[in-house]
Every structure is written in structure tokens, then in C-alpha cells.
Amino acid sequence: MIDFLEYDYIIVGCGLTGSVIARHLAEKNKKVIILEKRGHIGGNMYDYIDEYGFLVQKYGPHTFHTVKKELYEYMCRYEKWNEYKLTCGAYIDGKCTPTPFNFKTIDDFYSAEDAEKLKTHIKKFFGTRKTAPVTEVMENPDPLIGNYAKFLFEKDYSLYTAKQWGISPKEIDVSVLKRVPLHFSYEEGYFDDEFQVMPKHSFTYFFENLLDHENISVELGINALEHIKILDSEILANGVVIDIPVIYSGAVDELFEYKFGRLPYRSLKFEWKYEQKDSIQDMPVVAYPQAEGFTRITEYKKLPVQDKPGSSYAVEYPLEYGKTENAEPYYPVLTEQSQKQYEEYKNLADSVKGLILGGRLGDFKYYNMDQALERALEICLKL
Predict the structure, then answer these.
(1) No. of H helices and E strands in the chain?
(2) 87 close to 93: Cβ distance less than 8 angstroms
(3) How far apart are CA 134 and CA 229, in angstroms?
(4) What confidence tens digit (pLDDT) does each residue in 87-110 have?
(5) Residue 134's Cα: distance from chain center in Å?
(6) What does residue 362 show for φ and ψ, rounded to 5 degrees?
(7) pTM higher than 0.85
(8) Contact 92, 151 (CB under 8 A)
(9) Fewer CB within a 10 Å sphere, N or C end of the chain?
């Protein structure tokens, strides 16, 4: 049995949030133990070499991108990074068009004459603006512009959202729809951040270096909630009240034994495939909004570029968390109701001495990697 009294801090979860905080505390000469339910470090950023020699990401595609130099420089402490501009697409009506949707999309689905007319209207109305959310463009008073956005919403956004999140697009928080705006140019690339990179070796290598400190102990394959409990605003470890702070990056409703009901999360299933082809699809990540069941395919030969024969790829199926055996919570489903429900859990967590929530699940927020890093560093400052 783990003797938690040997440590100054307990961290639940060995993803980016937990690992960054652990390193910070270790460098402050604090002894830290990380409890990780999975059999590996790195959380959802975990990658490995598959049986065909390709570096693949077990839990879906990740690249590091940010506009903040200080966040990029932090990542550079523990790995070397190569520039990598992610390109994505959506397969609509038999055509693969770039996402975020841009002027190439207009050319793909309009005649040459109509395409030029629509682009002229967009330039006139939006001027120097580079992007706009689809929800805003749909409400545009110019019928040409509005109908273009409605076409994309009906063919992509609405179908993908319903499939990915399991609810109507009307229910989902608008922030989710704003993640992929329309672009008013021919510029391609999923992100426009100044820093867009992939690790020279791997994300797992980054985590190995991050966690390489004498004051950090990592216990894999351990369900923390079999050891850590909350009772009357106090933390118990193996049935004994402790005053050791706990940083928790797991699902907060599970921590409090679903006191206010289950929070809604979406889970994923990956169907791994290999083909003796040089290329499976036009881009590394392609969404298939009109396909039955699955949402997207990630071709890892292109993420990063790997010069090997054949190609390994993963077909992604969204699942409802809590109703599928062995499913894991990946994405919080952000609705008005779910965020009110989370606030009840957050208020309860704030009343527990020494308990700190963080990460995508602990904060119930749809973080990108740089946002998760920034949030972890904020927690470090408070500690």
C-alpha cells in the first residue's frame, strides 16, 4: 500500500496538467507522487511506435500550437520541436475541401462565375477581417454570403456536431462552433498561431524528460479514487484524514461520487488500420460529416511526415460516456445546463481544504494543449 505521508503533494493524473505541476513542485524541493489510472504517462498526448514502424497517437491527433512565446519556450525545456503546420479537410459531397473552410471551398462547390461573385461580396462586406464564426456569417444580410454559410452548416457543422457531441447544434455552447471559423482567403492551415510544432522525438519523450526528477514518483495503473476520498470537506487517503494537498485532473463528478448527477462527456473509439498505400487521404486529418458513425480519420504517416512504405491510420467513432463499457471521458459536453451542474461541483470542491482542480476534466473545459499548459502554470503560481 502506498504511504502517502511520505509525500508533500498528491497529483491525480499524469497528463500535461499533472506533469507540469509535478515538475514545478519537485524543483521547489517538494516530494510529489502522481497516481495515473492508465498504464502509461502523457495522458491523451501519449504516442508510440506501432507494429508497422509509424509513430502514432493513441488518443487522437495532437500538435502544439500557441501565440504565446513563453508557452512555446516552456515546451522547449524538455524536447526539441520541429515546425509543423497542420492541414485538415472535410469530405463533403464527394470532395475533400480544406478546413477551416476558405476561398478554395467556394471554388470547390460553386461555378467559376458564382465563386468570384461570392468572394467579391465577402471582401466587400468583411473588409480586412480574416475570419468569422459560421454562426455570424449565417446571419449576414447579404443572401449570397448567408446562404454560403448555411450550406456549410447543413453539410458539415450541424452533422459533425450532432455526431461528435450527441446533441443538437442548438444545445452546444457557441464556443465549440467558434473553434473552426470561416477563412476569407486561400490560406490553408488549421491554426494561424505563430508557433506550430511537433516534437522531434515524440510527445512521450517530452513527458519522460518533464517527469525525470528525483522528487517525482509516478504510479501507473492506479485508480486514485480507490485510495482518495472526500468526506465532510476533508481529504482521506486510505481511510485516514490527511492535510496533504491533492491536485486532481480527473472527472470531478466521479470524485464526488456523482452527488449532483453525472456530467456529460463524450468518449471515443479508435479503429486502427494499416494499408500498403503511400497515401490514404489528401490531408493528415479529414472530417467525414456525412459518413455513417465515424467522424474523422487521422493518417499518422503525415502527422508528422514519416517516410516509410504503407500508411497507418485511425478511424474515430464518438461514443456516449457512461453508457459504453470501458469508455473514457475525453471531451466535456458544454451546454448551459452542464456548466451550471459543473459549478455545483466546483463550489463543493472549493470547500475542501487542500483540493485543487485542473485539466480538461477537472475544470470541465475544452482546452487546447497550450491552454492546458497555461492553466497548469497558473496553478503553479498559486502553489
Answers:
(1) 13, 22
(2) no
(3) 44
(4) 999 999 999 999 999 999 999 999
(5) 21
(6) -65, -40
(7) yes
(8) no
(9) N
